[in-house]
């Protein structure tokens, strides 16, 4: 790792520390042991984590790792039982469900010669470990976005 990269990593860790220190826990409920975070704090932590993940992802490529070897695999199961699995990559270093649904639809059409049915489940995995299952709401939102790109205006 270069000296500049080491300083960038240090800065990202400090940003995350600051974001975590400024958490404002509100509406703490002693009975359920739950608290609500402000949207501002959640957004700050999320942006910092995304920046750190993208930076670390970039380091892997800078060290000569193969993009497809370090990329997650998107697994999509359709309601008819057909399953597509494909290695995916995105510039930001994080999964792009919209793009991956579009690719899964193309793979389904290629395999079956039919239009794809509804998606039953979708998740990302790496080295056989499930990383990020999508909720039905996230799948529906990504499908709406993918449909906009697939259908010509």
Short key terms for the protein model shown above:
2 domains; 5 helices; two-stranded antiparallel sheet; four-stranded antiparallel sheet; 153 residues; alpha+beta
Structural class: alpha+beta
What is the radius of gyration?
19 Å
Q: What can be said about the biggest beta sheet? A: 4 strands, antiparallel
Quaternary state of this entry equals single chain
List the helices and strands and how they pair.
Layout: H1 3-21, E1 25-29, E2 34-37, H2 39-62, H3 67-70, E3 73-78, E4 83-87, H4 97-112, E5 119-126, E6 129-133, H5 136-150
Antiparallel strand pairs: 1-2, 3-4, 3-5, 5-6
Helix pairs in contact: 1-2, 4-5
What can you see in these coordinates?
This protein is of the alpha+beta class and 153 residues long. It has two domains: 63 residues; 81 residues, no CATH class. It is built from five helices and six strands; from the N terminus they run αββααββαββα. A four-stranded antiparallel sheet has the order 4-3-5-6. The longest helix is centred in the N-terminal third of the chain and has 24 residues. The radius of gyration is 19 Å and the shape is globular. The termini are far apart. The mean pLDDT is 76.
Question: How would you summarize this macromolecular structure in one to three sentences?
Answer:
The chain is of the alpha+beta class and 153 residues long.
């Amino acid at each position: 790792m270069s000296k500049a990269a080491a300083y960038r990593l240090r800065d990202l860790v400090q940003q995350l520390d600051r974001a975590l220190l400024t958490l404002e826990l509100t509406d703490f409920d002693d009975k359920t042991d739950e608290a609500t975070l402000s949207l501002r704090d959640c957004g700050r932590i999320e942006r910092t984590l995304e920046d750190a993940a993208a930076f670390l992802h970039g380091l892997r490529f800078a060290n000569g790792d193969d993009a497809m070897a370090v990329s997650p695999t998107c697994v999509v199961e359709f309601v008819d039982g057909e399953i597509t699995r494909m290695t995916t990559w995105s510039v930001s270093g994080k999964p792009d469900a919209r793009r991956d649904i579009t690719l899964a639809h193309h793979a389904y059409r290629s395999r079956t010669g039919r239009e794809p049915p509804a998606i039953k489940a979708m998740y990302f995995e790496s080295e056989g470990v499930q990383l990020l299952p999508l909720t039905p709401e996230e799948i529906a939102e990504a499908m709406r976005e993918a449909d906009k790109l697939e259908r010509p205006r």
